[in-house]
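Appendix B: complex inputs.
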Amino acid sequence: MINRRPSIIKFSRTAHASLGVILVVPLYLLSISGTLVVWFEEFQRWEQPEVTEFSTYTTTQINRAVKQILPKLDIPPETIFIVLPTSAAPRLHVSASQQEWFVDGQGNLETPLATPWTSMLMEFHNHLLLPELVGLIITGSLGAILCTLIINGWLAHPNLIKDLFRLRWHGQPRLRHLDIHNRLGIWGSPFYFMIALTGTFFGLLGPFIAAGAFLWYDNDREALIGQIYGNDPHVSQSATPVNYQVALDALALYEPTAQPIYFMVQRPGQKDQFLEIAATLPGRLIYSEIYRFHSDGRIINHQGLSDGPVGRQIAYSIYRLHFGHFGGVYTKVIYSVFGLALVVICVSGMNSWLLTQQFQHLRHLWLGLTLSVPIGFVLAAIASLYYTPTTPTFLGATTLCILAALILKHLHQVRTLLLGILTVSLIALIASYFLRYELHNWNNAVWSINLTLCLIGVVTGTACIRSTRSQSKLNNSQRIQNN
Amino acid sequence: MFLNLFHGTLLINTISMVLIYARWSKRQTNFFSILSALSLLFAALVGWCLSFGIEVGFIYWFMTNALFAWLMVLVELGLAGVDDKPRNKLLRKKRSVNPQRHKIVREYPLLRFHLVGPLAFIVTFLCCLNAIYWAPLEIANRWVLATILFPIVWAVFATLAAGSSDIFRILGWQLFVGSIAFLLLLRSVLT
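Resulting structure:
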């Protein structure tokens, strides 16, 4: 690690530069959307602040909600999900056959889930708004490419230990960008490596299962998934309705530390109906252990996600590890900081490369892209407040901003214009939200998000003013020189 | 418990990073002095993590040491002001104006793209399917091993394809490995 041959360094540097330059755009898009997706529960609360919130629930509420959801469905559902309130999302909601309602304190269905902006954000991060399968393969592959960039980035650095704290902030712009890229990249690399590995897992497990089922299981994917994650129990005779209270009491005896997060009623109303309770276990990273019960509340078994084969435990830990959904709000903040750092790595890496090149249009395009994506997200959020489709708004706004960046003559004009648009959009978003929802509906997630938006608005506004001033100074000095 | 773990890990990281930084800032950048500080960091953390469950502890370690390293960078900027010794100026100047610097990448761009992307993907996919079938592990472990192996194997292929000057040799290697993986997979289906 310490004394690498110059040929290896040169080789790795070439590989790192070529891969990075080619794939920087999708990596930037994934990083910026991933930074936001960490807070998707809070964004859902922000989009629907009028929903009743509470931290405890009763089985009477659940029974009533399940009774009310069944007549709303056209066909009998395969599964009914009852998602329990948590500290991050203190709301009870039921879903079946891709329809979802929030439940009020009495157990009545309140309002359907309608979070178009958050859904768009998650689709953007999961499959880049492409068809799901193709998009997942692409994002999974980008995870693998990120691993490649991390590995050859490490190998490309000639003085890894010596330069651990090196940052030439006031040096030449290219060296500044390069140092920011290198330092953030090296110190954050264990985290980015974990994010890349887990992202690859999400994206490519599907194709692996499809290929494996085709080759060795007569195309029976269920059989294969059952072998990896554990099979469903066989229940022949079942009483209806489901007794949730007895099941909860049985769970408290079976695993006293388990904290239920959602219920699943499998094949409701049929002979082989059974109840599953997903519950988190303290100190474990697995998404949940799943406990199975007869409809009368007697325990059948648990799926073995917490104590089964190591591979199963790892597979079920990937979600929390990738999205930072463990350890509370601190972890989310740290994940956001690192997500933002990955965005900066993409931008600074590309900037340092562009500063060695002569392509002016490419610089405009890159600056336009980096600033147009946040503008697109903000304008899509405004659109969602007024029931306008979010995805076309996002794509339209982004395209227009990029075109504007290409049309303008000077780079600082692009910067000033786009920062100005971003600031105005942020102000418009906060004003629209204020007009749309009354203050008494604002929960702590709404306050936090709106205050953060204000803060970002101040930062971008200041940057815009500074850019304008430096531009006018430059113009003045040019005028003096000409005279 | 999460909070205790969080604060504990923060504390250990802070001490370790300050130690590394203190030695570094005195320019005692010999290998053993840094290694000793790093060893302390690793040993303390591994011990700490194991007592709480390795899966939870390590993720905190991943995150927090980097944050503190950045805090140290900011400290350095604040205390020492600007940068330091410009090293090897001539070499850097030579590099920045050298038009041949990215010559390798410009040779056979289409073939190189296929070697880094689609072909490397297919060969890696075949290798990992073989790992799923042939690895002497329990079935759930094999699948997870394959999905974790996938990006690492691809990283090797992609780095070789993107950085190598002899691209046809890399093409040959990829075809050879791909063929072997395909034949082994065929055998697994036929048996």
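The first helix of chain B runs from residue 2 to 25.
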